[in-house]
């Protein structure tokens, strides 16, 4: 194991211990989500040949350090609040201070709702890695889990796919989240590898919608 890999493994163990001590978050944004985002970020960084892995590791484990519910008024500020919290936590842990601004920017820019332009390779990679979590089979599970937590319905009973002229409302109907956001994500990816992965996972979502339409018509 080279020095960089050893350093990454040591920091990952500390980040894992931090979140174990903090207790469980909601199932869509907890430690398993952080691990998957890190794995995706690392894979994208390797494919793209760029990105500071320690910055990406810290960003992956702390991008949702502050995670208000989707319908909370603070939601649009969550990534900024997470960046502030992460800077404080990482500073107290003795993380390299020269890397803290890069971590903070990557966390701030990862959020879809914040609308912050990613200016660094790490910010672009982290944004793509987090968005991959909204796609594919995992994205399906997280979408309906989150919709249920918000008290929404699975789909509109009379017009499930919004073809009858009604206004789409993903706070009320989980299936509305597909055209409003999920099916758009692949085109918004910042890296070639992120886009490739997103396109594959988007096909999973489209197959699900086709299967759902067929079953509802039976």
Structure explained in plain terms:
This protein has 10 helices and no strands. By secondary structure, it is mostly helical. 61% of the residues lie in helices and 0% in strands. The model has no long low-confidence stretch (mean pLDDT 91). Helix 3 (53-62) crosses helix 6 (121-132) and helix 4 runs antiparallel to helix 5 (100-109).
Reconstruct the topology from this structure:
Elements: H1 3-22, H2 31-48, H3 53-62, H4 78-93, H5 100-109, H6 121-132, H7 136-149, H8 177-180, H9 185-188, H10 192-217
Helix pairs in contact: 1-3, 2-3, 2-6, 3-5, 3-6, 4-5, 5-6, 6-10, 7-10
Domain HD: 30-135
Keywords: Hydrolase
Organism: Mesoterricola sediminis
Q: Which structural traits does this protein have?
A:
mainly alpha; hydrolase; 61% helix; 10 helices; 218 residues; hydrolase activity
Query: What is the count of β-strands?
Result: 0
Query: Helix fraction?
Result: 55-70%
How many distinct helices?
Answer: 10
Uncertain runs:
none
The helix-and-strand class reads: mainly alpha
Main sheet, how many strands, which sense, barrel? none
What's the pLDDT, averaged over the residues?
A: 91
Which H/E pattern describes the elements? HHHHHHHHHH
Estimated radius of gyration: 18 Å
Estimate the global geometry from the Cα principal axes.
Answer: globular
Report the β-strand fraction as a percent range.
Answer: under 5%
Distance between the termini: 56 Å
Pfam family, one: HD
Domain HD: 30-135
InterPro entries: HD/PDEase_dom (IPR003607), HD_domain (IPR006674)
Organism: Mesoterricola sediminis
């Amino acid at each position: 194991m080279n020095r960089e890999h050893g350093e990454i493994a040591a920091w990952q163990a500390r980040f894992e211990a931090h979140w174990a001590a903090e207790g469980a978050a909601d199932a869509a944004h907890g430690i398993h989500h952080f691990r998957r985002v890190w794995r995706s970020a690392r894979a994208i960084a390797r494919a793209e040949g760029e990105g500071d892995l320690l910055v990406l590791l810290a960003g992956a484990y702390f991008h949702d350090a502050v995670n208000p519910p989707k319908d909370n008024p603070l939601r649009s500020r969550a990534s900024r609040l997470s960046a502030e919290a992460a800077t404080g936590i990482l500073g107290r842990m003795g993380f390299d201070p020269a890397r803290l601004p890069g971590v903070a920017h990557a966390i701030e820019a990862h959020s879809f709702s914040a609308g912050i332009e990613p200016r660094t390779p790490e910010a672009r990679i982290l944004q793509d890695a987090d968005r991959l979590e909204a796609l594919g089979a995992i994205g399906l599970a997280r979408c309906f889990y989150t919709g249920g937590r918000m008290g929404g319905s699975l789909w509109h009973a009379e017009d499930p796919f919004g073809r009858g002229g009604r206004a789409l409302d993903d706070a009320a109907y989980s299936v509305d989240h597909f055209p409003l956001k999920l099916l758009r994500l692949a085109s918004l990816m910042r890296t070639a590898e992120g886009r490739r992965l997103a396109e594959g996972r988007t096909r999973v979502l489209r197959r699900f919608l086709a299967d759902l339409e067929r079953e509802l018509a039976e």
